[in-house]
Amino acid sequence: MLHICYSGQEGNDMNRNKLNDEELLQILFNTNWSDSEDGLDNSDHEQDLNNVQIPEHVDYPTNVNDEVSFDLLDLPVEMQFDTGETLILPSDSKSNLTYQNQNTTPRRSIRQAFSSPTESTSNTTNQSHSRPKEKNIELTNLKWKKGNLITPSACLKFNEPTLHNDLLSLETPLDFFAYFFNNELLIKIKEETELYSVQLNPNKPVTLSIDEIKRYLGICIYASVLHVPKIRDYWSVDLGFPLIYNTMSRNRFELIKSVLHFNNNATMLLPNNPNHDRLHKLRPIIDHLNNRFSSIPCKETLSLDEQLCATKAKSYMKQYLPDKPHKWGFKLFILTDTQGYAYRFEIYSGQENNPIFRKTTEPDFGASSNVVIRLTRNVPVNSNHKIYFDNYYTAIPMMEYLYNKNIYSLGTVRLNRLPNCPLPDKNQEKKMKRGDSIEYITSYKSAPISAVTWKDNKAVKLVSTYCGEIPKSEMTRFDRIKKSNIIIDCPMLIKEYNKHMGGVDLLDSHIGRYKIRFRSHKWYMRLFYHLIDLTVVNSWTLFKRVKEIKKENSNIELADWRKQLAFTLIQSGQIRTSGRGRPSSSLEVKIASTRPQSFRPIKEVRTDKFDHWPQITDKRERCKMPSCKGFTYLKCTKCTVFLCLNRNKNCFTNYHM
Question: Angle of helix 558-570 relative to helix 523-550, nearest 10 degrees?
Answer without folding.
Answer: 110
